[in-house]
Amino acid sequence: MTLIFKPKSLIEFIGNSITDSHRTDPAHQPLGNGYVQNIHLLLQTGYPELQLKIINRGVSGDRVTSLEARWKTDVLEVNPDYLFINIGINDVWRFFVGPQEEALALPKFENIYRQLINNAKAHIQAQIILVSPYLAVNDPSDPFRKRLAAYQQTIDHLGDAFDLAVIHLQPAFDWAMLSKPSPYWTADRVHPTPEGNMLIALTILRAAGFSL
Fold first, then answer.
1. In this structure, what DSSP letter does residue 49 have?
2. Is 191 a catalytic residue?
3. Which domains, ranges and CATH numbers included, belong to the chain?
4. Model-level pTM?
């Protein structure tokens, strides 16, 4: 598989804290210290001749409604060549932890996500890639994982409806947890450790045609 990125492309990642990864901290500006920074390093090292530019528009705590509020400034005005959308875990997590009024029912989640994609396709020429969230839990019957599965399936349906690629992080973590337990990959089943961030980065890049 050939790398999908064309020379001098602008590649944007938008999402929640997993994407944000302390990107506003002076010590980690502008890409944070998570998977986006790893992707930058791997692409600059593996394909320096392409002169790719990576930008991070993750915001900690974001749900799909949060993306809706900042879509114009953080996506349409940026006008990237490639747009990776990594959202959904907080929409589900709030059913279990934090203010429950921030939890987003599946129909509303799907409707807003669909509107965001339609809006992007109407105003910019970006190649859009959906990144499906994960939960680092081995047990498929876990209540959080069971609820998340419906949101993961919805993202798959949106990918089919718009003919967009969907990158599935759940199978990558399931595979990784066969060798190392969840705390090796995540601090709290969601927020990745350095190893978890590299797992995300490699999963995304392999789907984009990267080869070591």
1. G
2. yes
3. 10-207 (3.40.50.1110)
4. 0.96
